[in-house]
Design goal:
Strand content: under 5%
Order of helices and strands: HHHHHHHHHHHH
Oligomer: single chain
Largest sheet: none
CATH architecture: Orthogonal Bundle
Distance between the termini: 20 Å
Helix content: over 70%
CATH superfamily: MetI-like
Structural class: mainly alpha
CATH class: Mainly Alpha
Number of domains: 1
Shape: elongated
CATH topology: MetI-like fold
Radius of gyration: 24 Å
Length: 309
């Protein structure tokens, strides 16, 4: 038992020495390259992004063109089955399902990324104000954040999306982004409070550096690490919530521009007879969200000093 403990301590010491003398980012990347969870998640994310960007070129058919429409009419509204040129068959109106999935990947990525970026920007503003100014500003901002966090995220997004008379893709982005703002704000505020009493900040104050310079040159840059890691996790949540809004009919009503949540909502009417129309978009949402989650969790562990070995 003692020999085994000594062996573990020796391995831990070697790992610590291997990270000595390198930056935090370099040490984190060294650990990530050996993490199979990160590699699997990164592979899923890279594949999703590449397919989304190249989807107009990869889609063999126009996602809005009912190329199988004649078959649908002859078969009395039956869903076209898989066939040469259409490996996944068609949807309710004869449009190629594979092409719609590919183009829908681009729309899903666009909604998720924009919603995360807007939520991150809003959270940075509120978190910086609360963490840098403190006092009554911190109290007001944090009480507003607490109120928003007390409401379940999807319920809040549905409530915000229902406020718009004509829902579309941009209302979905705005609704999901507003839900993510308090998450980033609270995390950044906590990181900045931890930086407030660090040695380099105290030294800058002792030298008479202005408060604005201390905040933007010392506190904020050193507080962004956890926020950036959280952004990868929020991206997965944003994709799921955006799909939920589209599923509930609060997304883009124009189905000529497909989106996975929208496709899933349309498939519920025929899910008993043709479950594949719901299986494919739902499977894509689950796999992509899993990929971003694996990447985010791996980044969190790699950047956490307590988890180093």
């Amino acid at each position: 038992m003692t020999a085994r403990t000594d062996k573990i301590d020796e391995l831990a010491q070697r790992a610590a020495e291997s990270d000595a003398g390198v930056s935090l980012a370099a040490a984190a990347w060294r650990r990530l390259r050996r993490n199979p969870v990160f590699l699997v998640g990164a592979g899923i994310v890279v594949l999703f992004v590449v397919l989304a960007i190249l989807s107009p070129l990869l889609a063999a058919h126009d996602p809005a063109d009912p190329m199988l429409g004649d078959q649908v009419v002859r078969a009395r509204n039956e869903i076209p089955p898989p066939q040469p040129g259409h490996p996944l068959g068609g949807d309710q109106v004869g449009r190629d399902l594979l092409s719609r999935l590919l183009v829908g990947a681009q729309q899903t990525l666009l909604v998720g990324v924009l919603a995360t970026l807007i939520g991150l920007a809003g959270g940075l503003v509120l978190g910086t104000l609360a963490g840098a100014l403190s006092g009554w500003v911190d109290t007001v901002v944090m009480r507003a954040v607490d109120v928003m966090l007390s409401i379940p995220g999807l319920l809040l997004a549905v409530s915000i999306g229902a406020l718009f008379a004509q829902p579309n893709q941009y209302t979905v982005i705005l609704a999901v982004a507003i839900v993510q703002i308090p998450v980033f704000a609270r995390l950044l505020r906590g990181s900045m409070l931890a930086q407030r009493h660090s040695d380099h900040v105290l030294a800058a104050r002792a030298l008479g550096v202005r408060q604005r310079a201390i905040v933007f040159r010392h506190m904020l840059p050193n507080s962004l690490g956890p926020v950036i890691v959280q952004a990868t996790l929020v991206l997965a949540i944003a994709i799921i919530e955006a799909a939920g809004l589209s599923f509930l009919g609060l997304g883009n009503p124009d189905d000529r521009l497909p989106e996975w949540g929208q496709m899933l909502g349309q498939a519920q009417n025929v899910i008993d007879s043709h479950p594949q129309l719901a299986f494919w978009p739902a499977g894509c949402i689950i796999v992509v969200a899993l990929g971003f989650t694996l990447v985010g969790e791996s980044l969190r562990e790699a950047l956490d000093p307590k988890s180093r070995r």
